[in-house]
């Protein structure tokens, strides 16, 4: 782990560990991957304006969110089928987040019963992919509440499946179809075959989708690829209001990119939104969340606005907080860590970001993340200082 100095180092190591088709599933973006690139280049528009001669000998990045105090403003975004990257991936991610004291959002496309993951990290959040059928959503919400989970995230940017050509070329699909390319790729990574594939089969059997609905779903390996997203295309704001009535805990809507939709989320009774383009994996060409963030914060100043997509450095996190985000989530960085060294690797990814946040707070001349504001940023497409 010592040689892993940055998230980019972890990404390179993950590439060597994972079969190419699974690595492609993790890194890939939709179609031409223009949103994927924009998620990174969006940060470059903002430059820091450091303030010297400020006492930065003591620094803090502790952040309160929905009544809990976390060690850092960076948590783990929901990601499906983490068990493809590492044995017991869902619980390993949860334990990593718990160890570092940051939020972890379990994906609805996960393969470990949510009750089991919640016992590894009782404070975890759960992300649901809800179909428009209320007779299916209702029992799922009851199940999540019965597990003691207090924050429900509903992802709204996947009405239907996008096309990620890297996955099609690699013969990868969810559920997995055992294609020749998939098998050959697995054989090219013997360590993954033993530590992840074989260990999962021997100790846990074929993973199933455990949390799409209130009851156990099908296995992730099938002869044909089915659309587990069926029924979501008809989902609308009325359904969100209905979910709000059913769910007594905190409700977060993930996948918001327009200020009016942040207002719609607030009007539907949501407690927070995650500004996200799904890491560039859904609508290609969708605006980068870091670009959309300022106008969303301005539209719902009373709401908890969080953001993900493209965060790889502590400085990226500082920029988002300065633009008004309350919290940042990362997806792939944690998955790279998981692929390289399981729980220890995910902890390393989170700690790398925390270390960079701490160091750059000092260099910026702002001792506390709570004190960040636009006064520390200069927008390269505007003239003068934006304080
Ligand atoms: C492999 C992978 C699987 C994902 N699965 C889900 C999912 O099941 N539910 C969801 O809401 N978002 C999912 N996402 C999107 C992430 O929650 C998050 O929005 C995105 O990864 C953030 O971008 P980043 O990876 O650049 O940090 C997934 C992302 C990746 C990379």
Automatic annotation (TrEMBL):
Its cofactor is FMN. GO terms for molecular function: FMN binding; oxidoreductase activity, acting on CH-OH group of donors. The active site is at residue 278. Glyoxylate binds at residues 25, 129, 164, 278, 281. Residues 1-382 form the FMN hydroxy acid dehydrogenase domain. Keywords: Flavoprotein, FMN, Oxidoreductase. The keyword Isomerase does not apply. Belongs to the FMN-dependent alpha-hydroxy acid dehydrogenase family. PANTHER family: FMN-DEPENDENT ALPHA-HYDROXY ACID DEHYDROGENASE PB1A11.03 (PTHR10578:SF143), S -2-HYDROXY-ACID OXIDASE-RELATED (PTHR10578). This is 2-hydroxy-acid oxidase.
């Amino acid at each position: 782990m010592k040689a892993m100095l940055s998230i980019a180092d972890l990404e390179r190591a993950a590439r060597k560990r994972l079969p190419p088709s699974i690595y492609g599933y993790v890194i890939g973006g939709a179609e031409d991957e223009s949103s994927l690139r924009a998620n990174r280049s969006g940060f470059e528009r903002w430059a820091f304006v450091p303030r010297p001669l400020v006492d930065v000998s003591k620094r803090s990045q502790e952040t309160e969110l929905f009544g809990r105090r976390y060690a850092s403003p960076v948590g783990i975004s929901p990601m499906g089928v983490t068990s493809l990257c590492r044995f017991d991936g869902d619980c390993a991610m949860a334990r990593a987040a718990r160890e570092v004291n940051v939020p972890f959002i379990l994906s609805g496309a996960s393969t470990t019963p949510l009750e089991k993951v919640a016992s590894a990290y009782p404070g975890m959040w759960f992300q649901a992919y809800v179909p428009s059928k209320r007779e299916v959503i209702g029992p799922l919400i009851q199940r999540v509440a019965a597990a003691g989970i207090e924050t429900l995230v509903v992802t709204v940017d996947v009405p239907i499946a996008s096309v990620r050509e890297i996955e099609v070329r690699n013969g990868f699909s969810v559920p997995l179809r055992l294609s020749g390319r998939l098998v050959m790729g697995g054989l090219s990574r013997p360590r993954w075959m033993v530590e992840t594939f074989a260990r999962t089969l021997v100790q846990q059997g074929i993973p199933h989708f455990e949390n799409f609905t209130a009851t156990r779903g099908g296995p992730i390996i099938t002869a044909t690829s089915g659309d587990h997203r069926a029924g979501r295309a008809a989902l609308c704001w009325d359904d969100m209001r209905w979910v709000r009535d059913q769910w007594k805990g905190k409700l977060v809507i993930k996948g918001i990119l327009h200020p009016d939709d942040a207002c719609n989320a607030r009007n539907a009774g949501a407690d927070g939104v995650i500004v996200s383009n799904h890491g560039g994996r859904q609508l290609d060409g969708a605006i980068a969340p870091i670009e959309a963030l300022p106008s969303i914060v301005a539209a719902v100043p009373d709401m908890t606005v969080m953001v993900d997509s493209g965060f790889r450095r502590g400085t990226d996190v500082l920029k988002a907080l300065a633009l008004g985000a309350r919290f940042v989530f990362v997806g792939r960085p944690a998955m790279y860590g998981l692929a390289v060294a399981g729980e220890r690797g995910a902890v390393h990814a989170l700690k790398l970001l925390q270390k960079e946040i701490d160091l750059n707070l000092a260099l910026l001349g702002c001792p506390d993340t709570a004190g960040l504001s636009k006064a520390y940023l200069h927008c390269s497409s505007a003239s003068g200082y934006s304080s």
